[in-house]
Each structure stands twice: as structure tokens, then as C-alpha cells.
Write a structure and sequence with these properties.
By secondary structure, the protein is mostly helical. About 45% of the residues lie in helices and about 5% in strands. It contains eleven helices and four strands, in the order αβαααααααααβββα. The strands form two sheets. It has a two-stranded parallel ribbon. Strands 2-3 form a two-stranded antiparallel ribbon. The protein is elongated, with a radius of gyration of 27 Å. Residues about 245-275 have low confidence and may be disordered.
Length: about 325
């Protein structure tokens, strides 16, 4: 009798089925500008089209917020459906991470702490913090970075002395777990919004375009003098777009547009495709995800054994 081949042996003794290889996505509270640019390129969406869609989406959300007292108004049916689609995309983009960051509470505490006028600098800084959601800054920066950037930009609009919140006068950015580079990056994102889409914002129409241009020039001069990067933790790759890892001066590359997250890059798990590559689940605890992956991995690691059988024919 001829011996079994390895293929026949494997067919006669199939390997036991292990647990379903569910796909775990750990929540990422922050992303870099380079990640946004890479996803935009992979989606093939022009910058002008993305700008219009992003600002229109924010306007829809704001319209629904203001019209909550009129839930039966048929004029908002189409808008509400679009808002639901935007909310679904936002939840999937941030991995269903419900830990929100908003700078408004800290912002008003800073206004009081530094003795600034609540009715002028404070109110304008609060409205700037609302315009901040028309940029990509809330997904890149911490709460304290956004609050300090909004406060400084408001103070610049009112020509208020900034010495009390400058590093030269002893302000400790390290205590707030931020840096001057991150604050300048956030202010530049806002200034780009106000110079290119002023009428689509809350604060923009109240000031002439030249006011924002003059502030932007001063911020760019400071960045050049201190060699601050336009984007923190980014480098410029061959195609001229930012990427993680290195530093370049403000103004060294063409001014990019703040964008919202688009479809995941190639190779990522496509959400909503049930039954493909297992189940997609989201976790907030990276350690738990690591332990679960290690536990499941051993059931799907192929184990090969070699053996030699000798047959004696009589």
C-alpha cells in the first residue's frame, strides 16, 4: 500500500477551526496632517471640492442645531439625512471614540486668569473656537493647544498686549503639555480659513480681509525667526505633500488646505462589509487589543510537521 501524500493526510485530518479572526481597530485620539493628506490623495478628491463639501457639512450641522425647536419642519428633511451620513462617517473615522475634546471651558478660564476683557476678547475667542471646527485642528491638537491659540488670535484682533502669555515672560508651555510650534500651527490653520473662506465663518465677516492678512504675516515672521515647523511631526515627501517625521519652516511649502478625513487608505478594513475578514470591532484600550490579538493569533498560525514513514514489504 502506497503512503499518503502530505496533501492527502491534511485532507483526511482537517485542522480544527479556531475563533473568528475579528479585526480590532484601536481608537486614535490624534492624527497628523500627513495622514489626512495621504487619505485625500487615495480618495482622489480635489481640494476645491473637499473644501466646499466640508464647509457645507458644517453649515448643515449648524442649521440643524439652530432649528431643533422645529423638528417637524419639512424643509430640514434632506439636510437631516445628510447630517446623519456625516455623523456616521465621523464615528467610523474616529473609531467610535466618544472621548471628545472641546476648548471652550478651558478658554474661558484662561480669559479670567489673565485678566482679559470677557466681553471683547473672551467672546471673540469663544466664537473663534467654534470656527475651529471648520478646520482640521480639533483632530490634530490637544484641548489646551486649541484654547491658547484661540485666545491669542482673539487678543491679536483686539491689539491686546501678548506679553502675559508669551514664553519670554515666563509662560510655561511645557506645563500645559504643548509647544509654541503647535499653537502657531493652529493659528495658521485658522488664519487660512479666514483668508480663504471668511464669509463661511462666524468671526470672519466682522473684520476686513486685510486684518487677517496682517496677523498672518506677523505669525509667519515669528515662525521663520524661530524656525517653527508649519506642521508638527511632519516632513515633505517627493510629491510636495507633508509626511511624518521631520521639520521644515513655515512657508517652505505651498499652503495646504485644512480638510476632513476621507476614506481609509488602501489596505485598511472597509467598514460595513459584513462577513468579510471577520468582524470589525473598536477598542479604546490598546493593551486589551494587544492581548486579544496574541490570544487569537495562535489559532491561525500554520504549524507544519515533517515525518518520514518507512514501509517494509515482505
Amino acid at each position: 500500500m502506497a503512503p499518503f501524500t502530505p496533501e492527502e493526510q491534511q485532507a483526511s485530518n482537517p485542522a480544527p477551526q479556531g475563533p473568528d479572526p475579528s479585526i480590532i481597530q484601536v481608537a486614535k485620539p490624534y492624527i497628523f496632517e500627513s495622514t489626512v493628506q495621504r487619505r485625500l490623495r487615495s480618495a482622489g478628491i480635489p481640494e476645491q471640492r473637499e473644501d466646499a463639501a466640508r464647509l457645507q457639512g458644517v453649515a448643515w450641522i449648524d442649521s440643524v442645531r439652530k432649528a431643533l425647536q422645529l423638528p417637524d419642519d419639512p424643509g430640514f428633511d434632506n439636510i437631516s439625512r445628510n447630517v446623519v451620513s456625516l455623523e456616521r462617517m465621523m464615528l467610523e473615522s474616529n473609531g467610535f471614540d466618544f472621548r471628545s475634546r472641546y476648548p471652550q471651558k478651558m478658554l474661558m478660564k484662561l480669559v479670567k486668569s489673565y485678566g482679559l476683557d470677557r466681553n471683547t476678547v473672551g467672546v471673540t475667542a469663544y466664537r473663534i473656537s467654534l470656527d475651529l471646527y471648520r478646520t482640521f485642528a480639533p483632530l490634530k491638537q490637544t484641548t489646551q493647544t486649541m484654547a491658547l491659540a484661540c485666545l491669542e488670535l482673539s487678543a491679536r484682533l483686539f491689539l491686546v498686549d501678548l506679553t502675559s502669555i508669551s514664553e519670554e515672560k515666563g509662560f510655561d508651555y511645557g506645563r500645559w503639555a504643548t509647544s509654541r510650534a503647535e499653537i502657531v500651527e493652529t493659528m495658521t490653520d485658522l488664519l487660512e480659513l479666514y483668508t480663504h473662506h471668511r464669509n463661511a465663518t462666524l468671526v470672519g465677516p466682522e473684520y476686513a480681509l486685510d486684518v487677517f492678512i496682517q496677523i498672518r504675516i506677523k505669525v509667519n515672521q515669528e515662525a521663520s525667526q524661530q524656525s517653527l515647523p508649519r506642521y508638527t511631526n511632519c516632513i515633505e515627501v517627493d510629491n510636495g505633500s507633508p509626511s511624518e517625521g521631520a521639520v521644515h519652516n513655515n512657508g517652505a511649502i505651498a499652503t495646504p488646505t485644512s480638510i476632513s478625513p476621507q476614506s481609509p487608505a488602501r489596505g485598511a478594513v472597509a467598514l460595513g462589509e459584513k462577513g468579510r475578514d471577520g468582524t470589525v470591532r473598536f477598542m479604546l484600550d490598546p493593551e486589551r487589543a494587544r492581548v486579544e490579538k496574541d490570544t487569537v493569533k495562535r489559532y491561525f498560525t500554520p504549524e507544519e510537521k515533517e515525518w518520514v514513514e518507512e514501509y517494509v514489504y515482505v
